[in-house]
UniProtKB/TrEMBL annotation:
Protein name stated in the entry: ABC transporter ATP-binding protein
Entry keywords, A to Z: ATP-binding, Nucleotide-binding, Transport
GO function terms (MF aspect): ATP binding; ATP hydrolysis activity
Domain ABC transporter: 5-234
Pfam families with a match to the protein in the record: ABC_tran
Length: 308
């Protein structure tokens, strides 16, 4: 698949001297959902803002749809929709007028049917004549999404879309995002919720302290990281594993008092039943057992810590 966004050697140093992005190289594939995961202050909003041409890079190049986002700003920006992290809330305009106006700003001809379609998709149609400032927070966020979609962008950025959002909006948003992707759009979302990345993304990029720490297909990441452990506290400590157990991913721990079995939590076949049967046959008794999972949360924390 070809890249729709190409970022090379991107650096951002704010006027304060703060280095917010360091040598970022990143390719976003056309038609994918890419989740940019990172703790607060990692540089997610800065990265998105530079791609959208809102923040000037200090070095490096970015192209969107082949257009340089600095020197060909208009052409690049026309194919981008941005739902910013902060929602602006002070408009006296109605929902429908705001979305239609936003479309016009991008030089697109009026298209009431299209505006109606996105308002309906976002459950905003009933509120189309309401003034934005009178809407609830969740409704305002829906308007921000409608505005971002108003000019039919090929690329949609969602900056922390579900931070503080209710369950309904979250569900609608994911449905909409999937629908957009089916129509060929590329979606980049930032989040510090791991579950969100897990649920939605095709690929995940982890950013920490302005640096991209990892970029990987979600499935591969989950496979790698979705390991579980079963720990058996043995009645009688073992000095070594009997040969009959060679076929299992086992390790002795705590001076032979514990047997640790690692298995893939993603797989249908964990092998635990066979293991317990073998242990029974070998006369290896255990007094207790426990399982633990390296959660994505943990993995993420480790990644971020290792990259310090
Ligand atoms: N205009 C600015 N001037 C100076 N520092 C900034 C500015 N905007 C953001 N920063 C700093 O850059 C870092 C990254 O911020 P941001 O991109 O908003 O992170 P994230 O979106 O991942 O939470 C933070 O430490 C933030 O304080
Ligand atoms: Mg942010």
């Amino acid at each position: 698949m070809s890249s729709i966004i190409s970022i090379q050697q991107l650096n951002k140093v704010y006027d304060s001297g703060f280095v917010a992005l360091k040598d970022v190289n990143l390719e976003i594939k056309k038609g994918e959902i890419f989740a940019l995961l990172g703790p607060n202050g990692a540089g997610k909003t800065t990265l998105i803002s530079t791609i959208c041409g809102i923040v000037n890079p200090s070095g490096g190049t970015i192209t969107a749809g082949g257009h340089n986002v600095v020197t060909q700003y208009r052409a690049a920006r026309n194919i981008i929709g941005l739902v910013p992290q902060e929602i602006s809330t002070d408009s006296f305009e109605t929902v429908e007028a705001t979305v239609a106006f936003s479309r016009g700003l991008f030089g697109k001809p009026a298209n009431p049917q299209y505006v109606e379609k996105i308002l309906r998709q976002l459950s905003l149609w009933e509120k189309r004549n309401s003034k934005i400032m009178a809407l609830s927070g969740g409704m305002k966020r829906r308007v921000m999404i409608a505005k971002a979609l108003s000019h039919e962008p090929d690329i949609l950025f969602l900056d922390e879309p579900t931070a503080g959002v209710d369950v309904d909006l979250r569900r609608d948003m994911w449905e909409m995002v999937r629908g957009l992707r089916e129509n060929g759009a590329t979606i980049i979302l930032t989040t510090h919720y791991i579950e969100e990345a897990e649920e939605m993304a095709d690929r995940i990029g982890v950013i920490n302290k302005g640096q991209i720490v990892l970029v990987e297909e979600k499935d591969a990441l989950m496979q790698k990281l979705g390991k579980r452990e079963l720990t058996l506290q043995l009645q009688t400590p073992l000095t070594e594993l009997p040969a009959e157990l060679n076929g299992f991913a086992l390790e002795l721990a705590k001076d032979g008092h514990e047997l640790v079995y690692r298995f893939d939590s993603q797989s249908e076949h964990t092998g635990i039943a066979e293991l317990l049967k073998q242990l029974g046959q070998q006369g290896i008794d255990f007094k207790d057992l426990s399982t633990s999972q390296s959660s994505l949360e943990e993995i993420f924390v480790n990644l971020v810590r290792d990259s310090k």
